[in-house]
Amino acid sequence: MSRKGNCLDNACAEFFFGTLKSESFYTSKFKDIDELKIAIEDYIRYYNPRRISLRFNGLSPVEYRLKSYPGRN
């Protein structure tokens, strides 16, 4: 459990939700909560397997991991 008011304790989650908001939430309008839930689920399915990262030389995180550990599929 992180300390109150200290986002550094939960940096990975903070980064993910910040990215979710900037790439999905702020660029769309949702009619109702169900549409928002579907959009969040779609983004989560997209985030690791397909989202290209410049940090990983244009590979998705999953592709980068597979390339880093040959023989692990």
Describe what you observe in this structure.
- By secondary structure, this protein is mainly α.
- The chain has a domain at 30-73.
- It contains three helices and no strands.
- It is extended, with a radius of gyration of 15 Å.
- The model has no long low-confidence stretch (mean pLDDT 82).
Topology:
Elements: H1 11-25, H2 33-47, H3 61-68
- Radius of gyration, Cα only, in angstroms? 15 Å
Give the strand content. Answer: under 5%
Poorly predicted sequence stretches spanning 5 or more consecutive residues: none
Shape: extended
Succession of helices and strands: HHH
Mean pLDDT: 82
Number of helices: 3
By DSSP, the count of extended strands is: 0
Distance between the termini: 33 Å
Structural class: mainly alpha
Main beta sheet strand tally, sense and closure: none
Helix content: 40-55%
